[in-house]
Amino acid sequence: MLKKLFKRFGKDECGAVTVDFVVLTAGVIFMVLGVFQVLRQSVYEDAAAAIADGITEATEIGSP
Questions:
Q1: Quick one: pLDDT at residue 9?
Q2: CA pair distance 7, 1, nearest whole angstrom
Q3: How far is CA 49 from the centre of its chain?
Q4: Does 53 fall in a domain?
Q5: In total, how many domains does the chain have?
């Protein structure tokens, strides 16, 4: 009886698609986070430079 139960459990594929989607979704999320991690530094540096340029221009325009 136990042997029959294990055979039936091994052949049952219900839920296998769900597991596949969960694994694939987790993989995509980790890849996106990796890309953000790589690009984050350059984006922050570009934004900081743009803000600094804007402050410099505003200060020069306001000076007599």
A1: 76
A2: 10
A3: 25
A4: yes
A5: 1
